[in-house]
Amino acid sequence: MVLLPHSRTSAVLSFLAFLTTSTCVSASRSPGLPFVINTWGGAFTAATDAAYLALIADRNTSALDAVEIGCATCEKNQCDTTVGYGGSPDESCETTLDAMVMDGTSMKTGAVAGLRRIKDAIGVARAVLEHTRHSLLVGDLATNFAIQNGFKEQDLTTEASKEKCEAWKRANCQSNYRLNVAPDPSTSCGPYTPLPGIDQQTLARSVMEDEGAVSHDTISMVVIHESGIMAAGTSTNGASHKVPGRVGDGPIVGSGSYVDGDVGGCGATGDGDIMMRFLPCYQAIENLRQGMSPQDAAEDVVARMLRKYPNMSSGIVVANTKGEHGGAGSGWTFTYSFRGGDMEATEVVSVPPLPRRLEERRRNTNDIPDEI
């Protein structure tokens, strides 16, 4: 049967029970090392190719170098307008950037959030990793740090992003991320004031009615050098029409991406405001550590989030130290890209939403109850 949106909650709960009793799904075979995997296909494959070719061209290119090169490619190309400058303007029509890099050997990270007027977000994140003892810098002070480290201050707004924001305002600022405020955010641009006396029942209802984000197409990448050394990174311009100052999951360690060179790496995309509440990439790597395959690790993480937020959009990619990989998602047909070994081209994997994948599996096995 086809799962309708209003039936997702029961289907997800049934799936959680199925996960505990079904035979494990094996990971996709590794093409060999070096290996690059990242969220999304389409324009994002340019990042996969750039990272992989950098590793092939020069063995001195590190895993961390390749992550930076791959994510920077998407920043420059404005992949899907959701990475880099000129995309996802906030309520004030400004584009800000979030990025993070992580070294799988030392577990050291560097990240920036709400970065203003600097195009090379992934480069600044790496500067945080290499030139400070900190993990995360934010806002205008992150911009000051970037300038001190030789990055050029530039306007991140384009004519396209400006028009997108103005069109949104002409449409009464629909949709937006305001809740429990006056005037009604479903019909007005504000300015808003908080409604008094919000109780827990109202907050809970707001959660269950949350339809999730339309598009948060973060690039999140995991790289394995031919030596086995691993690194990961993430870059995004966040949610369109977000409340100014909002930071999503991209620069949050364990949420946007995570890597442990002894175990594997993970990248995530989707509704970051929800996903960061679950640290999905940290959980995925811990799943690997406990013996799950990459595919099962990814599906388990998505199922955990769907239990609480059945309407959310998400995408998870997971790879172990061998380059065996898997992915899972919800709310959309998620894709991811990979290239490794002596592959001549990047391959894109299409991943149906987890409830649909469950339904497809039901048709091919007697292990799943008929009532699902």
Describe this protein's structure.
The structure is a single chain. The protein is an alpha+beta fold. 33% of the residues lie in helices and 20% in strands. It has helices spanning 8-19, 45-57, 63-77, 121-131, 139-148, 159-170, 200-209, 272-275, 280-289, 294-308, 354-362, and strands at residues 35-39, 97-103, 109-115, 136-138, 181-182, 193-194, 219-224, 230-236, 257-260, 264-270, 314-320, 325-330, 334-340, 347-351. Strand 11 and strand 12 (325-330) form a beta hairpin. The protein is globular and about 55 Å long. The termini are close together. The model is unreliable at 1-13, 15-26 and 368-372 (pLDDT under 50).
- What is the percentage of strand-forming residues? 15-25%
Overall mean pLDDT score? 90
Q: What gross morphology would you assign?
A: globular
Give the termini distance in whole angstroms.
Answer: 9 Å
Strand order of the largest sheet: 4-3-2-8-7-1-13-14
CA gyration radius, whole angstroms: 20 Å
Task: Work out the number of β strands.
Answer: 14
List low-confidence stretches. 1-13, 15-26, 368-372
Percent of residues in helical segments?
A: 25-40%
If helices are DSSP runs of H or I spanning 4 or more residues, what is the number of helices?
Answer: 11
Report on the biggest sheet: 8 strands, mixed
Helix-strand makeup class: alpha+beta
H-E string? HEHHEEHEHHEEHEEEEHHHEEEEH
